[in-house]
Amino acid sequence: MLVLITYDVNTEDAAGRKRLRQIAKQCVNYGQRVQNSVFECLLDPVQLELLKHKLCGIMDPEKDSLRFYYLGKQYSTKIEHFGIKESYDPQSVLMI
Question: Could you tell me the sign of the dihedral formed by the alpha carbons of 48, 76, 90, 73, in that order?
Answer without folding.
Answer: positive
